[in-house]
């Protein structure tokens, strides 16, 4: 991480990026983090905007609306922010002062973030609105009549919906196959299992878990974030699953394990370990320690 000032010149930022093999620098101000400048910003400013790199200060080309996260935040928070804001870099702050930087490249190299979450970050960035590209489209299109623009946005929404449905279906299938359930019953098992699990966790941890799950599932879990309820045990979840699905205790236990395995495959390894840390001993076996 390199931090420069508003008065630093464009060429100094370019030199810092080249010397440190990085794609951005942070810009500090009197009150802490003031902005961020990427290699793309420099290219657009110098080549596209005709600015003199030796005289133009970073304050003129930096992005001031910086999305940040606090140092105590979880990795899942950074992933969620990248997805929500279409950015690849999240400065880490402590009392307004930059102390680190999480980048998309870091997530790829770390290997603990599911591929679908990484794809969502890239898609979110590509879908950011531009002069010749309405929000939601991945690539620029030539100017069109208003009715065609509306149709383009509708198609983009349909594609986004299709991606969300595919991600959700994949999670349901991950429960259905090992538990030998049809999709409808697997979906009920998934909702029951995750909802009761969320109620066993603290509200903050439950929110972090839900944030990493498929978007179609998240609204259905909003009522399940009022924990921690220490009455929720593995046995209690199995009993509820047996009642909802009409299966015996052995099948309910196998279904719960399938639900937990599906969750594990859908969220970051660090989040799995955080969940395990809040569970009582009789539930820790549902989420084995990450080897990553």
Would you identify the CATH H-level superfamily of the largest domain?
CBS-domain
Helix content: 40-55%
Radius of gyration based on Cα positions: 23 Å
Which blocks of ≥5 consecutive residues have pLDDT under 50?
none
Looking at the structure, the CATH topology of the largest domain is CBS-domain
Strand content: 5-15%
Domain module tally: 2
What about the largest sheet? 3 strands, mixed
Shape: elongated
Could you explain the architecture of this structure?
By secondary structure, the chain is mainly alpha-helical. The protein is built from 12 helices and 6 strands. Strand 1, helix 1 (10-20) and strand 2 (24-29) form a beta-alpha-beta unit. The longest helix is centred in the middle third of the chain and has 34 residues, at 146-179. The chain is elongated. 31% of the residues are buried.
Write the layout of secondary structure elements.
Layout: E1 3-5, H1 10-20, E2 24-29, E3 32-38, H2 39-48, E4 69-70, H3 75-85, E5 89-94, E6 97-103, H4 104-110, H5 115-126, H6 146-179, H7 183-200, H8 203-211, H9 234-245, H10 249-266, H11 269-278, H12 281-284
Parallel strand pairs: 1-2, 4-5
Antiparallel strand pairs: 2-3, 5-6
Helix pairs in contact: 3-5, 6-7, 6-10, 7-8, 7-9, 7-10, 9-10
In short:
By secondary structure, the protein is mostly helical.
Q: Which descriptors would you attach to this protein?
A:
CBS-domain, elongated, mainly alpha, 3-stranded mixed sheet, 2 domains, 12 helices, 292 residues, 6 strands, Globin-like
């Amino acid at each position: 991480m390199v931090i420069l000032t508003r008065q630093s010149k464009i060429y100094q930022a370019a030199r810092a990026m080249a010397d440190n093999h990085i794609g951005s620098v942070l810009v500090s101000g009197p009150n802490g983090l003031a902005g961020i400048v990427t290699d793309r910003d420099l290219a657009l400013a110098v080549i596209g905007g005709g600015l003199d790199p030796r005289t133009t200060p970073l304050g003129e080309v930096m992005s001031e609306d910086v999305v940040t996260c606090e140092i105590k935040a979880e990795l899942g928070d950074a992933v969620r922010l990248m997805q929500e804001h279409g950015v690849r870099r999240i400065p880490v702050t402590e009392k307004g002062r930059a102390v680190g930087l999480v980048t998309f490249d870091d997530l790829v190299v770390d290997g603990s973030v599911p591929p679908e979450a990484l794809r969502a970050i890239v898609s979110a960035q590509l879908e950011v609105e531009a002069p010749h590209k309405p929000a939601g489209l991945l690539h620029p299109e030539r100017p069109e009549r208003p009715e065609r623009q509306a149709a383009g946005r509708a198609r983009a929404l349909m594609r986004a919906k299709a991606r969300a449905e595919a991600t959700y279906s994949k999670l349901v299938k991950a429960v259905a196959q090992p538990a030998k359930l049809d999709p409808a019953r697997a979906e009920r098992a998934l909702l029951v299992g995750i909802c009761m699990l969320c109620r066993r966790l603290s509200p903050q941890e439950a929110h972090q878990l839900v944030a990493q799950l498929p978007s179609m599932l998240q609204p259905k879990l909003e009522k399940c974030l009022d924990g921690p309820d220490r009455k929720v045990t593995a046995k209690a979840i199995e009993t509820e699953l047996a009642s909802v699905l009409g299966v015996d205790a052995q099948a309910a236990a196998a279904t719960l394990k399938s639900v937990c395995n599906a969750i594990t495959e859908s969220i970051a390894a660090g989040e799995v370990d955080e969940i395990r840390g809040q569970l009582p001993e009789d539930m820790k076996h549902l989420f084995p320690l990450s080897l990553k």
